[in-house]
Amino acid sequence: MERVDIAIIGTGPAGVSAAITAKMRNKSVLLIGSRELSEKMSKAHQILNYPGLPEVSGADLVAGYKKQLAGLGIEVTEKRVNAVYAMGDYFGIQASGEILEASTVILAAGIVMGKPFPGENKLLGSGVSYCATCDAQFFRGKEVAVIGYGREAEQEAEIVGKVHYFPMGKEEPQLSDAVEVVHERPKAITGTQTVSALETDAGSHPVDGVFILRDAIAPSQLVPGLATEENHVKVNLQMETNLPGLFACGDITGKPYQYIKAAGQGNVAALSAAEYLDKKKREI
Asked: Strand locations in the chain, DSSP E?
């Protein structure tokens, strides 16, 4: 895939708004997320404060988003983003085992609920991983635990080695017989130099690695060097982060967690990214 002008990570109101505005500014767009857009929004019974759409249901608003994206020719790329790296004049996006390139990036992935597991940050890169597709090769023939948050995580769990799958949702996972499903709640990841076990509410499971497959990754872990505050990305009124060419919008930037606020910030982020690109072009 060739380098795009603007990569947008997230398909909620902020990401969709950013994609629409970027397209209207004649920028090439890579929209990464779910083709179903926002599951959270689709389940909303009524949204009462969206201008021009009084008492609209979340499902109807999502349907409208899909229609507008399709009309503009904006496709959604369904990949799990594991890391974003500033590479100087562009960004490298590690997504589902490959590297995508973009001149600018807009983070619109929503908020990560809950705190990291004890030991997660300490052992990240030393047995803890957020991408089974990327790191399965390092655990060939070994025993691993997969903490999965949803159907997408299940698809990624069929990795090399003996897998113990810990589902974090209410639905029964749909996995092959090669994967052992363990209905216990993970509590901590232990080890000294590398992972040695996953502790749960029912006991201890000795493993060589732990894959944590959440819907979203904490911003500080997603982008090295990104300034955050209380697990939110720090931005100015132009939705600029501390890293040139990187913007953020929506719930990931903090309260209030409102659809209309997210959509407005998505618009601003895309305008700022387009202006950044135009300025860089004039400097050449």
From this structure: 4-9, 29-32, 76-77, 81-86, 91-95, 98-107, 128-129, 143-148, 162-167, 179-181, 186-191, 195-200, 203-206, 209-213, 228-229, 232-233, 246-248
